[in-house]
Amino acid sequence: MSRPGGAGSERLSLGVAARLSRYLQVLIQARKMGRETISSQELASWTHVNSTQIRRDLSGFGKFGKRGVGYGVDSLVAEIRKILQTSGQHNIALFGAGNLGQAIASSDIFADHGFTIVSIFDTSPKLVGKKVGDVPIRSIDDLEKVVADEEIVVGVLAVPAEAAQDVADRLVAADVRVIFNYSEQLLDVPPEVTVHTSSPAVDLLYALYFYLA
Amino acid sequence: MSRPGGAGSERLSLGVAARLSRYLQVLIQARKMGRETISSQELASWTHVNSTQIRRDLSGFGKFGKRGVGYGVDSLVAEIRKILQTSGQHNIALFGAGNLGQAIASSDIFADHGFTIVSIFDTSPKLVGKKVGDVPIRSIDDLEKVVADEEIVVGVLAVPAEAAQDVADRLVAADVRVIFNYSEQLLDVPPEVTVHTSSPAVDLLYALYFYLA
DNA sequence: TAGATTGTTAATCGATTAACAATC
DNA sequence: TAGATTGTTAATCGATTAACAATC
Question: Residue A40 sits in a domain of what CATH number?
């Protein structure tokens, strides 16, 4: 094992996978801004990851950069996608068609990374049957059918806290193994299910500590 | 220095501050759910931080737990707030009164941590003058005046990517040092300014890697 | 050639983990 | 008392950083 954290056929370490995802996000945004190359230093300033660490992470998988120039944005996007094995498209379902749900549905943020929102679910009869962009709003009663038919791998919860556990339970029962929770609810799920809870205030608290201290 | 990462009057390390913020978020939610005590094991399952690490982090600052019982939720909230020096109230300004802005304004997520949204800014004449809850929507032209008058310490950007850099520039000029960026835009700011960019898709990518691999 | 930036090494520091006595 | 969980130690592993030769 010459490359700590790096890998041939081995699984990536948690830290490496998290950082690579982060690089990818910045690269895609840089590409939108018309950038063709990017240095480890620039990546560092945007990801808050040390530039040596970035070069080390990448060099574990190949020599992607050009000395004196930096990394090609396009080619690095492709390489990282290969490493993360997320070159494909994945279908996700969004729960909740309120302000937050609509904001998520109309943003590029998931689409840019190969996630397609194929269905939005809501309980309100007023919303069911309408569309957000191209995506139909369906009744939550159809959850099980849609998850199976559309091969949903991720459920994104943009529902009120009171409703979140119920939706999570139904997703788990329908064999969805990755849940992205935008509600404040602490979700109880079996160990094989991954929950990520979005907590913007946490980052703010911690930024503020360094500002105040 | 007996406590690595712990501190008396020293600054917390980045990692410790980030983890403490995370514990705090879960504790506050647990309190809402009526919990009075919580074990390091439970905190671990909700924060994805190892339980030994949690006990170690906390024991650096005092003996907050009861063996055989766990930690008192209320008292631990108070202790962590003391450590993070964020017991006070802080005023923040929200930019953008679209779907995302309205979702943020109507959630408890910042209020729970002592952040009060005192103003929402938008460019649309249709929205300026209205309110979201109790918070007035103002014209972005008033940015400088409001920031000074209301002692705004954080700017939260829920504007389209194209508008984000402009708002950031004006916030920096108005001496705001912490920016929370919900847009996809990569922001250029001077080194003394902290930017946190919310990237939900990044977490999803990385969760998915472990699901697929 | 001169300047910039990668790829890589070596040294240090913090995070992670298992284990377990102390004690509620 | 018995069971649970903290507080703490020790060992290991990964992250961080500085430094610099290689090279575009």
Answer: 1.10.10.10
Query: Looking at beta carbons, which pairs linking A134-140 to residues 24 or more positions away fall under 8 Å?
Result: A135/A94, A135/A105, A137/A97, A140/A95, A140/A167
Query: Which of B20, B204, B210 should be substituted to probe chain A, the one whose Cβ sees the most A Cβ atoms within 10 Å?
Result: B204
**B210 domain-assigned:** no
Shared domain check, B190 and B170: yes
**Reported confidence tier of residue B8, pLDDT bands at 50, 70, 90:** very low
Residue-range definition of the domain harbouring residue A101: 90-201
Beta-carbon separation of A207 and B178 below 8 A: yes
Q: Looking at residue A158, which CATH number applies to its domain?
A: 3.40.50.720
Q: pLDDT > 90: what percent of chain B?
A: 73
The answer for A114, left when phi > 0, alpha when psi is -120 to 50, beta otherwise, is left
For residue B176, the Cα-to-chain-centroid distance in whole angstroms is 15
Q: Give the DSSP per-residue string, B84-105.
A: HT--S-EEEEEE--SHHHHHHH
Asked if A119 has any chain B CB less than 8 Å from its own CB, the reply is no
> Is residue A193 scored above 60 in pLDDT?
yes
Whether A57 contacts A84, CB under 8 Å: no
Q: Which of residues 51-90 of B touch strand D (CB under 7 A)?
A: 51-52, 55-56, 58-59, 63-71
pLDDT at A89: 87
Mean pLDDT for B136-140 is 97
Which residue's CA lies closest to nucleotide D17 at its C1' atom? Answer: A52
Nearest protein residue by Cα to C1' of nucleotide C3? A68
Chain A contact for B46, CB < 8 A? Answer: yes
**Residue B213 in this model has a pLDDT that exceeds 90:** no
CA distance A177 to chain B (A): 8
Q: What is the pLDDT of residues B46-56, one digit of tens each?
A: 998 999 999 99
Please indicate, yes or no, whether residues B108 and B174 belong to a single structural domain of this protein: yes
Domain identity same for B196 and B142: yes
Taking the CA of residue A52 and the C1' sugar atom of nucleotide C11, their distance in angstroms comes to 15
Q: From the CA of A67, how many Å to the nearest CA of chain B?
A: 24
Asked whether residue A129 falls in the same domain as residue A167, the answer is: yes
Closest C1' nucleotide to A69's CA: C5
- The per-residue pLDDT for A10 is 65
Domain count, chain B: 2
The protein residue nearest D22 (Cα–C1') is A67
Torsion of CA B164, B169, B173, B174, to 10 degrees: 0
Same domain, A133 and A38: no
